[in-house]
Amino acid sequence: MTSTVNKPATRGRLTGSMSEERLDEILALFEQRRLGYSLDAPFYTDRDIFAADMEGIFGKHWVFAGSLAEVPEPGDYITVDFGPYSLIVLHNDEGGVNVLHNVCRHRGARVLTESSGTTGNMVCGYHSWTYDQEGNLVHASAPGEVDFNKGCFALKRAHSRVVAGLIFVSMAAEPPEDFDEVAKIFEPYLGPHEISKTKVAYQQQLIEEGNWKLVMENNRECYHCDGHPELACSLFPTWGLTEETVPTHLADVWQRNLTAESDLRWRCERYGLPYEVIEELDTRVQGFRISREPLDGDGESFSASGRRLSKKLLGDLRDFRLGRCSMHLQPNSWFHFLGDHIITFSAFPVSPGQTLVRTTWLVADDAVEGVDYDLDELTHTWKQTNIQDKDFVELCQRGASSPAYEPGPYMKSEYQVEAFINWYVQRMKEHLA
C-alpha cells in the first residue's frame, strides 16, 4: 500500500456560498429523515444538497478512481472527474502513483483534456505552462517576467492509496483514518487475483440521468434482479434474501444456492482463500462489505452457463470455480473478482441529475483477445445489466422530480440500501453540523 503527501485544495467553497438559513434547511432535512424509508425528493434533485454532497462526501472521503491496470507503465495516466473536481492519476517513473488536481496554476485551465493517455511533462494547452510528473512547474515563459518564482506554483496534490492494485483518492486535508484498517481487511480477499498482472480488456462509460445516490441504492439490492435476465443466468437471484424471505417460486434456486455455497467454502478452505462475509456498511466511517459468494451453473464466471469467459486464470489462483469475490465500498464503488477476470465499477457524480458510471473489465495480462477470450462474450452480461440499471435509475429520478413523490419503505431484502442511506446521512450530519 502506497500513499502520497497531500497539499490540500481549498475546501468549503460550495456550501460557503449558501446562507445560514439555507444550510439550516438542509440540515433539518437530514435530521427528519425517516428510518427505513427512501429519502425526500430534494436529496435527489436539489442543487444545494448536491453541492453539500460534493463537499461532505466526495470532498472528504476516499473515492475509488481506477486500477493499476489502467496506468500500467510510467507516464500512463487517467483523468477522473466528479462534481467540481478533476484529477490526474499518473504512474510516475519511480513506479508509484501521483494524484494531481487537473487545474493549471496560471488561469485554472484543464492541463490534460483526454480521459487517458501517456505523457512525459504535462503541458497546459492554454499558455504552455509545463509541469513534471510530480506536478512541479518547470516552464512558464512570459516576456518581461523576472521575479516569477515557479516553485510556488506546483499543481496541487490529493491524497492517494493503492491497495491490491486499486487506486483511491481523497481531497480532504485529513482523510478518514479508518481506511487503512478496512484495507487490511479486504486486501487478503483481493490480493490473490493480482491486479498488477492484469490489463484492460474493455471500459464502458455510461451517463445515467439520475442522482448518484440512486445509482448506489440500485446497486445495493437485488429486489429488482428479475429485470436482469442475462445476469440471472449466473448470479443467484436469491442474493440478499434469507430463508424466511425467499419467495415460493425461488425455493429450488435457494436450495441450489446453499449447495453451491457449501462447495465454494470447501474450495476456499482448500486453497487458503478468505470467503466469510464481513459487513460494516454503516457502522464505521469507511463503510464496506466483502465476501466470496458462489455463482450458478458452472460457478466460474458471468456467462449464460456460468462457464469461464477467459482461459487464463488470474494471479496465483489454481481453480476457476471460485464464484465471485464481491466488494462494496462507500461512497462510489463495487467490484467483482473472479477466477478469470475482474470487473470494477465506479460512480462519479456529474450534476444533481446525472452520474457517470464507469465499468472496466480486466483480464490476465498475457490473455490474447480472440484466442483466450471473446470480447463480446466477456462483456455481454454486465453491458446489458448496466443498461438495464441505467433505465431503472432514470425511472426513479423522474419519479423523484414529481410533486406526487413521497418516500416509500425499503423491503427486508433492501437492508443494504438502508445501510448505505444511514451511512450517507450520518456522514452529512457530521459535515453540516
From TrEMBL:
<dbReference type="InterPro" id="IPR015879">
    <property type="entry name" value="Ring_hydroxy_dOase_asu_C_dom"/>
</dbReference>
<keyword id="KW-0479">Metal-binding</keyword>
<protein>
    <submittedName>
        <fullName>Aromatic ring-hydroxylating dioxygenase subunit alpha</fullName>
    </submittedName>
</protein>
<keyword id="KW-0411">Iron-sulfur</keyword>
<dbReference type="Pfam" id="PF00848">
    <property type="entry name" value="Ring_hydroxyl_A"/>
</dbReference>
<keyword id="KW-0001">2Fe-2S</keyword>
<feature type="domain" description="Rieske">
    <location>
        <begin position="62"/>
        <end position="169"/>
    </location>
</feature>
<keyword id="KW-0560">Oxidoreductase</keyword>
<dbReference type="InterPro" id="IPR017941">
    <property type="entry name" value="Rieske_2Fe-2S"/>
</dbReference>
<dbReference type="Pfam" id="PF00355">
    <property type="entry name" value="Rieske"/>
</dbReference>
<dbReference type="InterPro" id="IPR036922">
    <property type="entry name" value="Rieske_2Fe-2S_sf"/>
</dbReference>
<keyword id="KW-0223">Dioxygenase</keyword>
<keyword id="KW-0408">Iron</keyword>
<dbReference type="InterPro" id="IPR001663">
    <property type="entry name" value="Rng_hydr_dOase-A"/>
</dbReference>
<dbReference type="GO" id="GO:0051213">
    <property type="term" value="F:dioxygenase activity"/>
</dbReference>
